[in-house]
Design brief:
Helices cover about 50% and strands about 15% of the residues.
Length: about 100
């Protein structure tokens, strides 16, 4: 399947980015295909709950920098990295729905 892919989306977790098995997979299986790789850092909202007043912003940046650096080393090129929080997306969706329905006014 990977050899037919135009793009590979690789998902890692913000609370445990790049486990050893993920590193092995990137280095052995994905790197050999030399495809475009997009790395998604899932569960960024977990970092907010673990931090104090800055809402985890410093920790989020450290995790993102760590993923960019290590993915670049493993893949031999700097990948596109997208931090993602499903909880934040849901909050925005509910807020949008509420404003469209006339709620909260």
């Amino acid at each position: 399947i990977l050899h037919d892919a135009d793009l590979i989306v690789f998902v890692t977790s913000a609370d445990r980015p790049f486990s050893q098995s993920e590193k092995d997979l990137l280095q052995t299986s994905i790197k050999s295909y030399r495809k475009r790789v997009v790395l998604v850092i899932n569960k960024m909202d977990v970092l907010e709950r673990q931090q104090g007043e800055d809402h985890g912003d410093a920790t989020k940046q450290r995790v993102e920098d760590y993923v960019v650096e290590h993915a670049g080393d493993l893949l031999g090129a700097r990948p596109v990295v997208i931090p993602l929080s499903a909880r934040d997306a849901l909050s925005v969706k509910l807020l949008y729905k509420s404003s469209r329905d006339g709620g909260g006014s």
